[in-house]
Amino acid sequence: MKSIEIYNILRNYFGAVGSWWPKERPFEVIIGAILTQQSTWTNVEKALKNLNQQGILTPFEIEEIPLEKLKELIKSSGFFNQKANRLKEISEYLITQYNGNLELLFNKNKKELRKELLNLKGIGPETADSIILYSAEKAEFVVDAYTKRIYSRLGLVNEKIDYENLKEFIIEGIPEELTIYQEYHGLLVLLGKNICKKNNPKCMECPLKDKCDFGKKENG
DNA sequence: GCCCAGGGGGCTC
DNA sequence: GAGCCCCATGGG
């Protein structure tokens, strides 16, 4: 089975999801992308709300706020010591390199942009791609834990497959378009969050059950 | 109480 | 370069 078939099945099942990421300012998407690492979105939302209430919306305010205060505000998202330090470092980088203006960074082509993001501590492949897809709004597919689980359960890839190889496999045959990439990622998240779950997959409710042996294996 | 979440970095061999 | 371990809160 190919990605485009999965896409069509999910699109018919869930309907249009659009961009799942709340439409915020580009820098807030970057903050969210860091905070959501290995964390739930509901916990991230609390942190984002705290930052908003304190008027912390740009790299400049992140840089100015005392580290301990920043930790306190983002505590709910977990790993707050690391994340606070990384937000500080990234903000400092954006200020010194681009005077805090993300437009300048996002003007670069995708490949350069991705390379530059990956050089920053705290931004790995998934976070970099999330920033490109949802903040810079360029067509760069995001692979996440849900995606990996779904594709490996479908028997399309080995569960040990690395990020870049899985990404290559997934985007094969899909139009390289912003809205398609956002939509497909959103659909996979919905499936992974609600049905193709880690410990209790609801295989009987899965729109892909006819294409997937995973549920059958589990039953015997 | 236990398991887990939309990762990433650092260390080891 | 793969394989571990650490980071830490909050929800089910």
3D structure, described in words:
The chain is mostly helical. The protein is built from 13 helices and no strands. It binds a DNA duplex (13 and 12 nucleotides) through residues 34, 36-43, 46, 75-83, 86, 121-127, 130, 142-147, 185, 188-189, 192-193, 198-199.
Mean pLDDT: 95
Poorly predicted segments: none
Percent of residues in beta strands?
Answer: under 5%
At CATH level 2, the architecture of the largest domain is: Orthogonal Bundle
| CATH classification, class level of the largest domain | Mainly Alpha
Our measurement of the CA-to-CA distance between the termini, rounded to an integer number of angstroms, reads 24 Å
Helical stretch count? 13
Q: What is the CATH topology descriptor of the largest domain?
A: Endonuclease III, domain 1
Order of helices and strands: HHHHHHHHHHHHH
What class, by secondary structure content? mainly alpha
Q: How many structural domains are formed by the residues?
A: 2
CATH superfamily of the largest domain: Hypothetical protein, domain 2
Helicity range of the residues? Answer: 55-70%
Largest sheet: none
Shape: globular
Radius of gyration: 18 Å
Q: What is the tally of beta strands?
A: 0
